[in-house]
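Troubleshooting log. The previous structure file for this entry was overwritten by mistake, so regenerating from the original sequence record. Sequence copied from the archived sheet and checked twice against the printout by T.R.
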Amino acid sequence: MSRSVSPGGRVAYVDGRYLPHANASVHIEDRGLQFADSIYEVCAVIGGRMLDEEGHLDRLERSLKSLSM
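Regenerated output below.
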Protein backbone atom coordinates (compact mmCIF):
# COMPACT_ATOMS: atom_id res chain seq x y z
CA MET A 1 0.00 0.00 0.00
CA SER A 2 1.24 3.45 -0.70
CA ARG A 3 0.55 7.02 0.25
CA SER A 4 -0.55 9.63 -2.18
CA VAL A 5 0.07 13.33 -1.94
CA SER A 6 -2.97 13.99 -4.09
CA PRO A 7 -5.70 16.33 -2.84
CA GLY A 8 -8.03 13.33 -2.53
CA GLY A 9 -6.04 11.80 0.34
CA ARG A 10 -4.28 8.48 0.75
CA VAL A 11 -4.52 5.88 -2.01
CA ALA A 12 -3.72 2.15 -1.93
CA TYR A 13 -2.97 -0.25 -4.78
CA VAL A 14 -4.68 -3.59 -4.13
CA ASP A 15 -5.16 -6.44 -6.61
CA GLY A 16 -4.47 -4.25 -9.61
CA ARG A 17 -6.72 -1.37 -8.56
CA TYR A 18 -6.18 2.02 -6.94
CA LEU A 19 -8.56 2.50 -4.02
CA PRO A 20 -9.15 5.08 -1.32
CA HIS A 21 -6.97 3.99 1.61
CA ALA A 22 -10.00 3.47 3.86
CA ASN A 23 -11.47 0.96 1.37
CA ALA A 24 -8.33 -1.17 1.01
CA SER A 25 -8.42 -4.63 2.56
CA VAL A 26 -6.88 -8.09 2.35
CA HIS A 27 -9.06 -11.21 2.56
CA ILE A 28 -8.58 -13.18 5.78
CA GLU A 29 -7.68 -16.31 3.77
CA ASP A 30 -5.02 -14.54 1.69
CA ARG A 31 -2.01 -16.89 1.68
CA GLY A 32 0.45 -14.00 1.95
CA LEU A 33 -1.33 -12.82 5.08
CA GLN A 34 -1.60 -16.28 6.64
CA PHE A 35 1.89 -17.55 5.89
CA ALA A 36 3.84 -14.39 5.01
CA ASP A 37 4.72 -15.79 1.57
CA SER A 38 6.97 -13.34 -0.15
CA ILE A 39 9.91 -13.03 -2.47
CA TYR A 40 12.74 -10.55 -2.05
CA GLU A 41 15.07 -10.04 -4.98
CA VAL A 42 17.49 -7.16 -5.47
CA CYS A 43 19.32 -6.04 -8.57
CA ALA A 44 21.87 -3.31 -9.16
CA VAL A 45 21.27 -0.62 -11.76
CA ILE A 46 24.20 1.45 -12.96
CA GLY A 47 23.92 4.05 -15.67
CA GLY A 48 20.30 3.08 -16.23
CA ARG A 49 21.20 -0.55 -16.97
CA MET A 50 20.48 -3.58 -14.81
CA LEU A 51 23.59 -5.58 -13.93
CA ASP A 52 23.30 -9.34 -14.50
CA GLU A 53 19.74 -9.02 -15.79
CA GLU A 54 19.61 -12.66 -16.90
CA GLY A 55 20.81 -13.94 -13.51
CA HIS A 56 18.35 -11.70 -11.69
CA LEU A 57 15.41 -12.86 -13.82
CA ASP A 58 16.44 -16.53 -13.43
CA ARG A 59 16.53 -16.20 -9.63
CA LEU A 60 13.22 -14.36 -9.61
CA GLU A 61 11.58 -17.03 -11.78
CA ARG A 62 12.88 -19.85 -9.55
CA SER A 63 11.61 -18.10 -6.45
CA LEU A 64 8.19 -17.45 -7.98
CA LYS A 65 7.85 -21.08 -9.08
CA SER A 66 8.85 -22.36 -5.64
CA LEU A 67 5.84 -20.52 -4.16
CA SER A 68 3.55 -21.30 -7.12
CA MET A 69 3.22 -17.62 -7.89
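The radius of gyration is 16 Å. Archived copy saved in two places this time.
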